[in-house]
Amino acid sequence: MALLDATAITKSFAGVQALKGVSFELRSGEVHALLGENGAGKSTLIKVITGAEKADSGTLTVDGHLVLHHSPAAARALGIAAVYQQPALFPDLTVEENIALALESASVWRRIDWRARRRQARELLERSGAEIQPERTVSTLSMPEQQLVEIAKAIGARARILILDEPTASLTDREVERLFRVIGALRSEGAGIVYISHRLDEVAVIADRVTVLRDGQNVATRDVRDVDRGELVRLMVGRDIQAIFPKGDVPIGEIALDVRKLGCRAAGIHDVTFQVRRGEILGVAGLVGSGRTQLAETLFGLTPCDAGAIQLQDDVMRIESPAEAIRMKMAYLPEDRRQHGVVMEMPVAANISLANLDAVSRHGLIDHALERSLARSYVERLRIKTPSVYTETGSLSGGNQQKVAVARWLAIAPEVLILDEPTQGVDIGSKSEIHQIMVELVERGMAIVMISSELPEILGMSDRIAVMHAGTIAGILSRAEATQENILALALGHA
């Protein structure tokens, strides 16, 4: 008997059918991956399961019992819990207070046993694999730590059906291993895990079965051992995996960026030397902590170098600030788009013009007609799906937010573009579109430095690959030399 059985679920919003007869089954002790592009219907299905949305038709059963009047409170009573990519915690309360709010019954006259509350929080945090003190204020926690607190809450609520939405998007390799151990422990206790992720390599490791949604329909449910990465991609997007990495041969031009013995004590990098030519994508690989992001921040002047030199446009210099880097036609798209890539509360048009206000200003004031025209040109060029250039950027899908961030930097007409995890947390279709944009840019003569923790992306999109270890470049591989084994050997410090 299934732990959870959603059968023939349909749901429409304003005449648009989000789910078209979707069925999904979760067994006790199973990790069932739910895959699909943004807009495929994953979020709507999860909202129906957690009681946040009422299905137009279809049935939902838990432990063989039909659920007739579903709601978030009913879902919690049934042992259904969800941990989302953006945790819903109270930032000004402590970890133990957040856990207590989720688990303790409310009573005005109940006396709080602070010692028992802290003991319970410690036990749940330990079970979730979190090394966090219960007294810490949530606002001081990193995003991965907040996710682990959410998992601790779910364990404390004795959740038997746990939904994890992109749980590893911002985790280090060590944190991912820890999370997988927690999932294994929950699975052994009979819990069922719904695992939503764009990282297909993880799905192959952690999941027992996989269900793929496309355009609001269930297109396949398979045992993970019976399906490979290429077939999953075809099921999700209706095209082969080669379309995800459309890198072809592009004529390589003159040197656009020449870095010589670059060092920055504050960033922990030293003796970095490499070149990037026009028309080339230089991939930067390495393990977490190897200095990849710190290198990008030093190149862009966020943490100015204290040794070596950078040559751009025939000028040899030490870039002291982002403003200087922008003036020299260098752009940098950081890893965390929500915090540094775009301003979520601002409209698309304002985000796109933000790095080049001079182009849309007259006499010190924003010319909204110029701003609108600029934004529309990039919306069309980058195929950004948005109702309007005045739509709030935070309402767009992750892939389209990333395209808005790219558009902002293209608006300064850069000659060197540094991309840090350009497709992190976006679906397969958006990943393919962002890769195609990169190909179009290098075909026009731009030089791209692409930092990525995904080896398939590094191998599929790079002309050469610089591998970092302990704050410096351990080696640079040609496309012909680049294999997962060679990259990993350099990343571990082996010649």
Characterise this structure:
With about 500 residues, this protein is α/β, with parallel strands linked by helices. It has 2 domains: about 5-240, Rossmann fold (3-Layer(aba) Sandwich); about 255-330 and about 415-490, 3-Layer(aba) Sandwich (Rossmann fold). Helix content is about 35%, strand content about 25%. The strands form 5 sheets. A 6-stranded mixed β-sheet has the order 6-7-8-3-9-10, sandwiched between helices. It has a 6-stranded mixed β-sheet with strand order 16-19-20-13-21-22, with helices on both faces. Helix 3 packs across helix 4 (about 115-125) and helix 3 runs parallel beside helix 5. It is globular. It starts with a strand and ends with a helix.
Would you spell out the secondary-structure blueprint of this structure?
Layout (H helix, E strand, L loop, with lengths): L3 E10 L2 E11 L4 E5 L6 H8 L7 E6 L2 E2 L5 H6 L2 E4 L11 H9 L10 H14 L15 H14 L4 E5 L7 H16 L3 E5 L3 H7 L2 E6 L2 E7 L5 H9 L17 E10 L4 E9 L3 E6 L5 H8 L7 E6 L2 E3 L4 H6 L2 E4 L3 H5 L6 H6 L7 E2 L2 E2 L1 H14 L16 H13 L5 E5 L7 H16 L3 E5 L3 H7 L2 E6 L2 E7 L5 H8 L4
Parallel strand pairs: 3-8, 3-9, 6-7, 7-8, 13-20, 13-21, 16-19, 19-20
Antiparallel strand pairs: 1-2, 1-4, 4-5, 9-10, 11-12, 11-14, 14-15, 17-18, 21-22
Helix pairs in contact: 3-4, 3-5, 4-5
